[in-house]
Structure formats: C-alpha cells, structure tokens
C-alpha cells in the first residue's frame, strides 16, 4: 500500500494510519477547515498536549460554555475548574463556575466538603440538606452495603435543621469570600496558535494546488523548525528553547484592547456587521494569511470566536513569493462551516490592518 508522510512525526505511514485533523480545534466549532496529512497518533497527542491549552484557556472557555461547544469528552466545559486555588476562604470548599443557559448567567457552585473527625465521626459541610443526605447515604452504602434507614434519615434531617439555625447566623455575620488564583502558561497557548498557522500553510498548499508546492513547503528550514518545536511539545520533551527560534517566527496574542492600536475600530465594526449579516451570528473565527512584503515573510492572523487574536509572523520562508497578497477565511462556529472571503472585501473593510501590521 502506498505510504505518505505525516507532517508532525515525519514518518511514512499507510492511508489507514491517517484521520481528519481539525485546523481550528473542533471544540471551538469547526468541522470543515481540516487536513488529512496528520497521522492518528499525532492527531490525538496534538489534541491533549497542544490544543487543550487554547480551547480550555480563560480566553475561550467562557464563550465555549455559552455557545455549548463540547470538548472531546462530549461535555460542555465547566469554567475555571482549571483555575487553581478556586476555593471559599471559609471552610476551604472547592468552587466551580458553570454557564446557566436558562438564566443566561454564570452560576457558582460551591462543592460540599467532608471532614473526618478524630472520634471517627464525619462532618459534612454543604449548601443544601439534600447534598448532606446524599453524601451520608452514599458513604453508608460504600461501608455497609445499604443506605440510610428511614429512622436515620429523619434523625439526620433533624440535626441539619438544628445546625442550620446556628450556621446561618454565623454566615450572615462573616459572609463567604471566594479566593481565585488563575495560572496559565502563555507559551503553551502561543504554541497552539502556531500549530494552527503551520497546518494552515499545508491546507493552502494542498487545497489550492499550485499556490504553494507541498514538497517545497516541507523542505523549508523555518517550516521544519516549527514542526520540530510542535513535535517536541507533543511528545512531552521540554528541550525546545524558544530563543533558538526567534529568527524563524514570532507569535503574539492580542486582546481587543491591544488590537485597537493596530486597526480602525469603526472599520472592524463594519466588517463584523457585514459578516454577521451573512452568517446570522457573531461567533465566528477569522483567519487571514497575508503576504504583504517582499522579505520572505508570511503573516497569519487568527481570531477565534471573535474574542482573542493571534498574529503570527513566519520568517525567512522562500515560498512566501508564491503566496497571494491575502487569503481570508471565516469559520462559522454555529454551522461549523468554512467560508472563503474575497480578499478585496477584507482590504476594503480593514485596510489599516494590512498596512500597519508590519511595523511592530
Ligand atoms: Zn504523525
């Protein structure tokens, strides 16, 4: 059987060893911007070691929950469960945040806590009587093989009522503060954006035939360095030192506030309105691959869910000559479809983006 190369492990594999790789992770709502030159092994590692840092990042997780965009587990993510130290100050109880679709707000859930006392008894701290009864019941099943008897249940309810009165008074006096500490690794989020950029170049190369020769792309030194860094990250090797790659690429992440320096806000609003009219929503990803100078550089703009933007400059790349001025794409996270936009629509709507980018 004919073998071909995987663009990450660089190994020759048979057709059956490959599957569909989502350039923008499917957890962000993408079913059509895909490539088929990534082997199954690499695909699964990319998801768990690289994509996840972006899809579950504080930039995007809130909007994912709001848009019901499910992850690999098939579940809509809890927001901030990855945040460390997200606990109530009083009693040190764990906290999670979940989007409440019906009320259109984020609900805070304070988890119950079980404390083992020295005399062998346990103390249960919870927000509702049902939670306490459930915990007591489950513990008894685990220990004795059967749950609480009616008599035990009644005794427990009585005790809860009694404690409630004293605790309520206490809580009103002291209040409950929630302590949140957010930790994230910006480098890992940047690598996830770099992965998208790397795959986009292969996507353009494969889908548009002659624009970029795939073989030439593969042989570019810069492209090989990107592959190397992503591969090392994927297999959990921490040897890659970022300073060695400064001459090959730059990745920066921009919030909307940062972007205001670059672009004319009115033009962007106009552009967003126009796209919103086409798609009927405002939850799309925007990509533009730009060749705006003659210095063998390619600029890739990736804006995800209309929230966070990354600007990636890929340097000293010979094939840049063959790339058109602008290749804009939109992926609609609702229909999960990809739409290619005419370059002149983009330049008309956001001319400043193209002109002012370079001087950074
Ligand atoms: Zn592979």
Automatic annotation (TrEMBL):
InterPro entries: HNH_5. GO terms for molecular function: endonuclease activity. It comes from the Bacteria. Keywords: Endonuclease, Hydrolase, Nuclease. Residues 6-58 form the HNH endonuclease domain. This is HNH endonuclease. It comes from Keratinibaculum paraultunense.
